[in-house]
Each structure stands twice: as C-alpha cells, then as structure tokens.
Amino acid sequence: MKIGIVGAMAQEVEILQSLMQDKQEKQLATCTIYEGKIGQHDVALLQSGIGKSAAAMGTTALILTCQPDCIINTGSAGGLDPELNIGDIIISDLVCYHDADVTAFGYAKGQLPTCPEKFVADQKLIDVVATVVEEQGQHAVTGLICSGDQFINGIEAIARIRQDFPTVAAVEMEAAAIAHICYAFKVPFVVIRAISDVADKESHISFDEFLPTAVKHSSQIVLATLEKLVN
C-alpha cells in the first residue's frame, strides 16, 4: 500500500520527513514531494504550501505522479468545537469550504457545482485513526472541518462560520481542497489535525506558540495510523 500524506507547511511535515528511509525529493512548481518508506509502507509526503490553491495543485501532482492508495492530510487547525483544546485531535468525517457561496443557484453554503454538499472522509480510515487516538490516550473529536483562504481570527468571522455551518468542529486552510481533489480522483482520504489554537480574537498568538505541540501530536497519530494500515 502506498500512502499519500499532505501537509501545508514545512513544520507540519518535518517529523514525518525525518523518519523516511530511502528518501527521494522532487520539486513540482511550488510543491515538494518526498518519496520513501515509513515502516512497511511506501509513502509519498507532500509539502503543498498554504491555502486552497496550493493544496489542490499539490494534491493533484501527488496523485498523478505517485498514485497513492489513500491520502492523509495532517497538520494544525483552529478549534471551534467546545470540547477541543490545544493539542487535541480533530478527525474529519465531513469536509467543506466555508468561503464558497453559490446559493443563488440552489446550492448549499460551502458547496460548489459538480461537487457534493460536503466531502465525505473514508470510514475505514476514520475507524483506524479513532482506534489509534484511543490507544494513545489522546482526546479527539470526529466532525466537520471547514476550510477557507483565511486565518480565522476574531469573533465576527467565527460567528459567520458557526451560523453557516452549525456543526463545524474545526477550521483551517487546505483540507476541503485536498478532499475535493480526492473526490475527483476517487482516492480515499481522512484529515488528522491537532488543535494549535482555539479560534478567537487571540488565535494568531496561540497559533505561533502552540504550533510545535500540534505538529508533534498530529504526526504521532499519523505514524501510529500507518502502523495499523495493512497492505
């Protein structure tokens, strides 16, 4: 089994990259793909860059050049579910854009033409990740992740997203674009992110301070998930 892993920033893929054996690196436009092995699995690790366009471009390149059997999106997120604290894990069951709006043509908020209302993560992958989180003694929420080209920082932005998506658990800037590409290419996916900030007016300060903790936690869960995935 070949596993594709996507992180936006260098910090979000650093731990995983350091553990790869027989590593080869290639640059495609602004994306970097590292191919090698982690444990028994062939792994293609993408550092996509930040934002939806970078994530979509990188994920497309990853699928076309490496043909992964599934894709895991890792990294950090802002928590909106009251049960989530810094360092906790958010697992996607659904993913959508919070900044897409073609409701004038009868689509739901966050839905784009030719796409489902929300992108559905692979249930088998969700189950494996949930088992890993429980075994590791981490706290996790499985729920809706909303993506947009904004760092959510402030009461008004949070209120808007909660009004449009009442069940939202976390926000970030790439997962929906990754899920969109996986949907188009019929590649199973799951998002595993750790909370770096609880979205509020001070979230930018929290993000800088707690990103290393979030990256460590999300990387640990990804590594343990790889161990449980069978060829």
UniProtKB/TrEMBL annotation:
<dbReference type="GO" id="GO:0019284">
    <property type="term" value="P:L-methionine salvage from S-adenosylmethionine"/>
</dbReference>
<feature type="active site" description="Proton acceptor">
    <location>
        <position position="12"/>
    </location>
</feature>
<comment type="pathway">
    <text>Amino-acid biosynthesis; L-methionine biosynthesis via salvage pathway; S-methyl-5-thio-alpha-D-ribose 1-phosphate from S-methyl-5'-thioadenosine (hydrolase route): step 1/2.</text>
</comment>
<feature type="binding site">
    <location>
        <position position="78"/>
    </location>
    <ligand>
        <name>substrate</name>
    </ligand>
</feature>
<dbReference type="Pfam" id="PF01048">
    <property type="entry name" value="PNP_UDP_1"/>
</dbReference>
<keyword id="KW-0378">Hydrolase</keyword>
<feature type="active site" description="Proton donor">
    <location>
        <position position="197"/>
    </location>
</feature>
<dbReference type="InterPro" id="IPR035994">
    <property type="entry name" value="Nucleoside_phosphorylase_sf"/>
</dbReference>
<dbReference type="GO" id="GO:0009164">
    <property type="term" value="P:nucleoside catabolic process"/>
</dbReference>
<feature type="binding site">
    <location>
        <position position="152"/>
    </location>
    <ligand>
        <name>substrate</name>
    </ligand>
</feature>
<dbReference type="InterPro" id="IPR010049">
    <property type="entry name" value="MTA_SAH_Nsdase"/>
</dbReference>
<dbReference type="InterPro" id="IPR000845">
    <property type="entry name" value="Nucleoside_phosphorylase_d"/>
</dbReference>
<keyword id="KW-0028">Amino-acid biosynthesis</keyword>
<comment type="function">
    <text>Catalyzes the irreversible cleavage of the glycosidic bond in both 5'-methylthioadenosine (MTA) and S-adenosylhomocysteine (SAH/AdoHcy) to adenine and the corresponding thioribose, 5'-methylthioribose and S-ribosylhomocysteine, respectively. Also cleaves 5'-deoxyadenosine, a toxic by-product of radical S-adenosylmethionine (SAM) enzymes, into 5-deoxyribose and adenine.</text>
</comment>
<dbReference type="GO" id="GO:0008782">
    <property type="term" value="F:adenosylhomocysteine nucleosidase activity"/>
</dbReference>
<feature type="binding site">
    <location>
        <begin position="173"/>
        <end position="174"/>
    </location>
    <ligand>
        <name>substrate</name>
    </ligand>
</feature>
<dbReference type="GO" id="GO:0008930">
    <property type="term" value="F:methylthioadenosine nucleosidase activity"/>
</dbReference>
<dbReference type="GO" id="GO:0019509">
    <property type="term" value="P:L-methionine salvage from methylthioadenosine"/>
</dbReference>
<dbReference type="GO" id="GO:0005829">
    <property type="term" value="C:cytosol"/>
</dbReference>
<keyword id="KW-0326">Glycosidase</keyword>
<keyword id="KW-0486">Methionine biosynthesis</keyword>
<protein>
    <recommendedName>
        <fullName>5'-methylthioadenosine/S-adenosylhomocysteine nucleosidase</fullName>
        <ecNumber>3.2.2.9</ecNumber>
    </recommendedName>
</protein>
<feature type="domain" description="Nucleoside phosphorylase">
    <location>
        <begin position="2"/>
        <end position="226"/>
    </location>
</feature>
<comment type="similarity">
    <text>Belongs to the PNP/UDP phosphorylase family. MtnN subfamily.</text>
</comment>
